Structure formats: structure tokens, C-alpha cells
Amino acid sequence: MMRIAFTAIVLSWVLTGPAKADAVAEFWKSCLPSLPAPPADGFYRVRSIGGTPETTDIITNLILAGDKTGTFTSPLMYEGDRSIAPEAGAYFVLTDSTAAPRAVLQTTGLLTLPFNRITEKETAVDGPAVRSLEEWTPIHVTFFTNALKSYGKVFSEEIPVTVEKFKVVCSDADL
Fold first, then answer.
1. What is the pLDDT of residues 14-27, one digit of tens each?
2. Is the CB of residue 2 less than 8 Å from the CB of residue 42?
3. d(Cα 49, Cα 13) in Å, to the nearest integer?
4. What CATH number is given to the structural domain containing 86?
5. CB–CB of 121/109 below 8 Å?
6. Measuring CA to CA, which residue among 36, 37, 6 is closest to residue 24?
7. Whole-number Cα distances in Å, 170 to 31, 124, 148
8. Which of 56, 83, 116, 148 could form a disulfide with 157 if both were Cys (CB 3.0 to 4.6 A apart)?
């Protein structure tokens, strides 16, 4: 049986109602034949990337265009919870700001470093407008400060940050 895990890593909203969950499940099922190695246990995550509906849609479009090939989280936000923890080789259904499925992404690499050791080598996976450290740092200080509050944690320059690289393996344009 396929299990759907909903991640709250960067969600400012949640899937609403069974219609959205059904649409995600149908999208996943439609993409299965195009996956290089479908998960034996049927596990996949469902997530959006962005702190607001507007940024979620911008980021989703950057990913679909191939301009953003990774994202940033912290183990402090998922601490071993498989339903939200990134895992090399694993898949997730990327949703837009309306919780509509747009793509299946596969995690291709993970690297965890202290926030203050992130360099432009790591930020190169982000969207073009935030690849420089001058742009990336203040945006992600704000992101991690806000995100960690919901976990009862406090941002510091030494928090662990996971760089999650991914690739699009199926998109709504393919179906």
C-alpha cells in the first residue's frame, strides 16, 4: 500500500480535503512508470517549497524550469521523522500554493553543514536570484528563524543545515 507523507518543513498551509489528497495520489500513480527506480515500499513524501503562497509558486516554477535544483532544511526540523526527513534516492510530489501536484522530484544528494559554513558552492542549487551569499544569507536567516520557532528551537549561525539536491523525474507537462 502506498503511503503518503505530508511534510511541514516549509509549508505555510496544508492540503485541504480529500480531493487534493486524491489528486496527489493520482498524480503519483501517473508518474510511476517514468520513475527510474520506484520505491519498493511505495513511500513518497508530499511537500511544497516556500514560506508563502507567492514564494511557493515562484519556487515551483523555478524547479519546473530547471533553474532551482535543491533546497535547504535543518535536521532540527525533522529529527528522524521519515515522513518529512530528506533521504537520498527518495521521491516527493511537489505541490504548488493550491496544493495541486506539479512534479515528482527525486532527492539526488544530501550534505549537512553548519549554517555559517554554507558557501556559494552549496547555494548554487538555489534559484538564480538567491545564489549569492549576500542574497541567500538574510533570506535563510529569516526562514530558519521562523521555521525553528514552530519546533520550539532558536536559530543560531551554527545550526545544522541540510542541502538537498533533487531532480525532476516527472512533471505535469509530461502527463
1. 344 577 899 999 99
2. yes
3. 11
4. 3.10.400.10
5. no
6. 6
7. 6, 22, 31
8. 116
Count of domains for the chain: 1
Cα distances (angstroms) measured from residue 49 to each of 27, 69, 110, 127? 18, 12, 17, 12
pTM (whole model) above 0.90: no
Q: Which three cell numbers stand for residue 40?
A: 519498493
Nine-digit cell string for 116: 555559517
For residue 26 the three cell numbers come to 493520482
Identify the CA nearest to 131 among candidates 70, 60, 58, 57.
70
Which H or E run contains 143?
A: helix 133-149
Domain assignment of residue 154, given as a range: 4-174
| pLDDT tens-digit readout, 117-158 | 999 999 999 999 999 999 999 999 999 999 999 899 999 999
Q: Which amino acid is at 8?
A: A
